[in-house]
Amino acid sequence: MGFFSHSLATVALLFGSAPFTSGRSLPERHTFIPRQATPGFSGCSYPSGWQSCNSADNRGCWVRDPSGKEYNINSNYEADVPSGIERTYDIEITEKEISPDGVPKPLAKLINGEYPGQVIEGCWGDTLIVNVKNSLPDNGTTIHWHGVRQKGSNEMDGVNGVTMCPTAEGDTFTYKFRLTQYGTSWYHSHYSSQYPDGVAAPLLIHGPNSANWDEEWSPIIITDWLHKSAFEEFHKELAGPPLPIADSILVNGTGRFNGGGSYFNQKFEAGKRYLIRLINGSAGTHFIFSIDNHNLQVIATDFVPIRPYNTTSLSIGIGQRYDIIVEAKPDTESANGKYWLRTEFADATTGCNNGIAGAGTQDLQRTGIISYPNATGNDDPRSSRHAFTVHCNEEPGDKTIPILPWTVSEPQNNITRDTYRAGLHLGERFHGFLRWDITSTPMWLNFSDPTILNLDNTTWNPEYAVIDYDYKDEGGFVYIVITSGSIGNDTVTKIPSFHPIHLHGHDVAVLAQEPTAYDPTTSPANFKFTDRPRRDVVMLPNGGFIALAFKPDNPGSWLLHCHIAWHAGSGLALQILERQGEIEGANGPLDQQRQGCQKWDAWLATHKDVFDPVEDQEDSGI
Ligand SMILES: *[C@@H]1O[C@H](CO)[C@@H](O)[C@H](O)[C@H]1NC(C)=O
Ligand SMILES: *[C@@H]1O[C@H](CO)[C@@H](O)[C@H](O)[C@H]1NC(C)=O
Ligand SMILES: *[C@@H]1O[C@H](CO)[C@@H](O)[C@H](O)[C@H]1NC(C)=O
Ligand SMILES: *[C@@H]1O[C@H](CO)[C@@H](O)[C@H](O)[C@H]1NC(C)=O
Ligand SMILES: *[C@@H]1O[C@H](CO)[C@@H](O)[C@H](O)[C@H]1NC(C)=O
Ligand SMILES: *[C@@H]1O[C@H](CO)[C@@H](O)[C@H](O)[C@H]1NC(C)=O
Ligand SMILES: *[C@@H]1O[C@H](CO)[C@@H](O)[C@H](O)[C@H]1NC(C)=O
Ligand SMILES: *[C@@H]1O[C@H](CO)[C@@H](O)[C@H](O)[C@H]1NC(C)=O
Ligand SMILES: *[C@@H]1O[C@H](CO)[C@@H](O)[C@H](O)[C@H]1NC(C)=O
Ligand SMILES: [Cu+2]
What we know:
Structural class: mainly beta
Helix content: under 10%
Low-confidence stretches: 1-27
CATH superfamily of the largest domain: Cupredoxins -  blue copper proteins
Bound molecules: 2-acetamido-2-deoxy-beta-D-glucopyranose, copper (II) ion
Number of domains: 3
Number of strands: 39
Mean pLDDT: 89
């Protein structure tokens, strides 16, 4: 529903006694900006006297406090956030058979019984409280809130072996954190190969946008989908080739396989501008999104609003999000009022990950249908594809400029020390197999022994891949260089590939993203420092390198990993241990972690037949 169709309800809410569905009455607050009816979400709520300034013609404005101060698209959300409410959700992880593409998957692991799981919605400035109950018979679980800054709440980051033990069967973990950013993201399990089996859902934080729109869609997760268990498929990553390969593509939980299943369906009305939020929730596949005959106006990369730019196709890496606005304007090229929505992926010839059976076949690329009111019959769209090349490169860095760019200063750290090689580590088997890594050794965590309960340590098990980052907030930026494969005279050979690199607890500015080999002496001279793209997942080009900058302002142990589930499981991850001495003071108490670990250990002790860590662990744990 658009803003205007809601405006009567908005007025009623502003002047009535604002109902608030969490069951608590908050008479001192007003509820406004109600959006589409996601269960459990009743609109945004700010203190009495605050006014919404958001409308179809002014999406840049959000709220105005009684003094007239605006929170808008130009507000520095890193420093100043409106005063939201506490919002509580309950979710349960269960196992159930589903058939999203017509083929049954027996042991899908689901959030509240659905794939994708329910949208968790909040508003800029809110605090989310999410009770996550694990009802899986054979697995622990954790939930990671992808891209959420978690400033001062590292213990809510949801990474087993790092910030908590897995939540045991029957146990509940309560995540609580502040939403200082706004925009589109997702939440997913960080327990081994669990998210590709279904534990993933959109996370939507309402706030201003950098261009105007009339109506919005609920966020859509685009993903590759496996008919078999992802835990089973992961074996291929270790023992292959052949490597893990998905069976179909799902758009918002709908897909087709061998003529069965169905297309994603949505409607457009001429002249309306639609806000569409795209999330790449794949395990191994990079997609190019397009809609025949329509332009895409891109307004955000991950949680970062950008200066709008137009394109006909959008390359989205795993874990990345793009918010786009599409203006509906049917033309005579489609005689039956319907247009294809396409999610294409590159085949092996491009050097991209070839994650889906039948890559390049047309049927797989056409995954959705956009219909106009005059659409007729049950026939397929007759529209034709925009001309564009399929590749897995990032959108060009000179296009994705943040509304509030950072100006990156000299690094505090020694970038020679902090240059990491991501690749398939040749010459040595780790836990029985060749593996992907990014430090000297693949990550291998003990679920029962999270980093966060070892904060007195001065030395670390090398398999925890802990890197000490003891830098001061006031000292400016810290840089990280990541190369795809080994470089120069490295003694260890690592095989290069594309990797979507995700850092927890931070956004990173991209100082360089090059397809050419890194040279420690000459490459840094070409780093760029102004108007740089900023996000939380950055594509590392095959055989090239990226240089990233972040602010060391968030004490905690933050995972940095490849978001291809198979590579992360293999070991391609490290921990940025930021300001170790301040972690306990800056974050909340760890009682929940200690209790959760006791329950996990008790579950393990009685479930050795299901999972014996000594006998059965085969992946990094994440
Ligand atoms: C998780 O559950 C799957 C079955 O769905 C099983 O194959 C796998 O071994 C379990 N893994 C762990 C680490 O608990
Ligand atoms: C995605 O699927 C959900 C559940 O079926 C539905 O409520 C929602 O409207 C869909 N979103 C879009 C954009 O189609
Ligand atoms: C998702 O990311 C993967 C890996 O980067 C990529 O292969 C796939 O094409 C992406 N999907 C979309 C819809 O862009
Ligand atoms: C980009 O697309 C939007 C929405 O379709 C349109 O209003 C705008 O004029 C376009 N901008 C350019 C530079 O073409
Ligand atoms: C639907 O409307 C568009 C213009 O609004 C027109 O170009 C198209 O031919 C119409 N299609 C049908 C089936 O009437
Ligand atoms: C930076 O780190 C490298 C590699 O660890 C080391 O050889 C070099 O001496 C360091 N430079 C400075 C200025 O500390
Ligand atoms: C994992 O850590 C726990 C707790 O420190 C310890 O008891 C257990 O022996 C460790 N497991 C392995 C396989 O090292
Ligand atoms: C913490 O230090 C102890 C003692 O040196 C060591 O045994 C343990 O492995 C360390 N923990 C981690 C997670 O590295
Ligand atoms: C590799 O080592 C050789 C011999 O020591 C040296 O001449 C060359 O500069 C080194 N190359 C790089 C890229 O460091
Ligand atoms: Cu990877």
